[in-house]
Amino acid sequence: MKAVILAAGKGERLEPITHTRPKPFVPILGSTLIERTVEELKKFTNEIFVVINNGNEVPSTYLSFYKRLNQRYGVNFIQQGQTYGTAAALKSLEYLINDEFLLIYGDIYFDLNKVKDIINVEGNAILGVEVSNPREYGVIYYDNEKDILSKIVEKPNYSESNVINAGIYKFTPDIFTYVNKTRLSERGEYELTDALNIMVKDIQVKVIKYTGFWKDIGRPWHVIDVNKDILSRIKTDIRGKVDDKVKIIGDVIIEEGAEVLYGTYIEGPAYIGKNSIVGPNSYIRKNTVLVGNNRIGASVEIKESIVMEYAKIPHLSYVGDSIICEHVNLGAGTLVANLRFDEKEVRMTIKGRRESSERRKLGTIIGGYAKTGINVSILPGIKIGAYAWIYPGSVVNRDVAANEKFSSLQESKLS
């Protein structure tokens, strides 16, 4: 059986993370979301296709991620072409697949053991998951006795069902007939759910109910959520070098090549990736992930945050409930506020619209290769774009665009 992973989405809601990496390559401990999926699919499939954007829309920084995935797992990359949408992505494989296949959206996190449940179904099937906010997704309506799909309604104003499309399917080649019958949606895309709604008039599609943790990674703070879920199930595994005067409480993974220096206190669950150096006298709190090759300096405190590859957080800094992307360099004394002064839920701007994170504590999202000077303070819910510079002593009280050079002192003079 073949498998298809749809990974052509632009990931605009995940910015600034996606300024420098494809959406499915968000970190899951020391790996990435898509590598985790591919590794599991290899147990059940003999060939994996990954659909990506056409060449004109692929930032140069994305290429190293694609190359790594190909070298490690031998996947086949297919460019989607000029049309948009999930049906358009699938259409690009029409002449490469002539048997049953799995299809998975590249931006979902779930218990991969459930793949077996859908593989064992005869014919076409879709995975459905119960959520508390179905109106934000494609809602599944189905025959409760026979579990046969009736229709999918995208983001309805009112929903009688709390079961939504989990983004995991098993298809026969019949699906391509209905993909070719789809028309442009209101969003200007060719939607796979439209193809399914046409298909169910002729061919039965089985609904497989999924229970367990499931997350559509559509907002930056969801990356923290999924890492927190997988951290909740780790067991202590220490392969790196740990000084005798380090205190560890709870389950912690310390990968080979990592070094934890004297006086450091680690509160699990936590993950310290390969070749990272932590300390001395640092405090790594629960649900922190250091992806790898990180440098955490003296007297630094990190709480429930994701620190990506090669990012550096030097001495006397505090980072809470945040995502620090690859190759970021924070100046000494950089402080991230993660709690509003009025203690209300932290809001963040997503595609130009203010949204509640539904989190009382949320710090900053800093894009790849950005850097701050010394003694910078960053307010809750702030996004800093890739390659941005934050000048010393600044108080960052608004979002900073990619490549922007920000100084709150200069802004004060201008006002």
From TrEMBL:
CDD domains: LbH_G1P_TT_C_like, NTP_transferase. This is Nucleotidyltransferase. Signal peptide: none annotated. InterPro entries: Bifunctiontional_GlmU_arc-type, GlmU-like, GMPPB_C, NTP_transferase_dom, Nucleotide-diphossugar_trans, Sugar-1P_NT/AT, Trimer_LpxA-like_sf. The lineage of its organism: Archaea, Thermoproteota, Thermoprotei, Sulfolobales, Sulfolobaceae. It catalyses: alpha-D-glucosamine 1-phosphate + acetyl-CoA = N-acetyl-alpha-D-glucosamine 1-phosphate + CoA + H(+); N-acetyl-alpha-D-glucosamine 1-phosphate + UTP + H(+) = UDP-N-acetyl-alpha-D-glucosamine + diphosphate. One of its GO terms (molecular function) is glucosamine-1-phosphate N-acetyltransferase activity. In the C-terminal section; belongs to the transferase hexapeptide repeat family. In the N-terminal section; belongs to the N-acetylglucosamine-1-phosphate uridyltransferase family. Pathway: Nucleotide-sugar biosynthesis; UDP-N-acetyl-alpha-D-glucosamine biosynthesis; UDP-N-acetyl-alpha-D-glucosamine from N-acetyl-alpha-D-glucosamine 1-phosphate: step 1/1; Nucleotide-sugar biosynthesis; UDP-N-acetyl-alpha-D-glucosamine biosynthesis; N-acetyl-alpha-D-glucosamine 1-phosphate from alpha-D-glucosamine 6-phosphate (route II): step 2/2. Residues 266-340 form the Mannose-1-phosphate guanyltransferase C-terminal domain. It comes from Candidatus Acidianus copahuensis. Keywords: Acyltransferase, Multifunctional enzyme, Nucleotidyltransferase, Transferase.
